[in-house]
Amino acid sequence: MNNKNLFERFSNWATNFTGSSSAFIGAVLIVVVWAVTGPVFQYSETWQLVINTGTTIITFLMVFLIQKAQNKDSKAIQLKLNELIAANKQASNRMVDIEDLTEKELDQLHKYFVKIAELSKQAENIHKCYSIDAAENKHKSKYQNKNQEL
C-alpha cells in the first residue's frame, strides 16, 4: 500500500467524518467543555489561547481537505458531463473540457446560450434543439447563400 492510497483513504474518511452529525456534536461538546472550564481557569489568556489555537489549526487543515474533496467532486461531475456530451449526437463535442477555458471565453459561451434560449422561445416548435455546431452550420449556410446571391 503506497502513501497516495493511504492519503486518499484518509481524506475520504476525514471528509465523510467531518460532515457527519457525530463530528458536529463532538465540536459542540468541545466548545461547551471549554466554556464551562472558563471560571476554573479564571478566563485566563492561556484558556483563550487553547480554543483559538485549536480552532485555527483545525480550520487551516480543513481548508485543504475541503478543497481536495471539491476538486475530486468537480472532476467527477465534469467527467460525467463529458460522457453525456459525447454520447448525445445533437450536443457539440466542443463543449467537452470547456472548464479549461478562460473566464472571458466562458462568458462568451454563456451569452451564446442565452441567445439560443431566446431563439428557442421564439421558435414555433419549442422542442427544437440547437447546438453550437448546428448554429455554426446554419450561419455558414446563410453566409454562403448570401454570397451566391451577390
Automatic annotation (TrEMBL):
Top-rank lineage group of the source organism: Bacteria
* Presence of keyword Membrane: yes
Q: Which residues cross the membrane?
A: 21-41, 47-66
What keywords is this UniProt entry annotated with? Membrane, Transmembrane, Transmembrane helix
Q: Name one GO biological process term.
A: transmembrane transport
UniProt protein name: Low affinity Fe/Cu permease
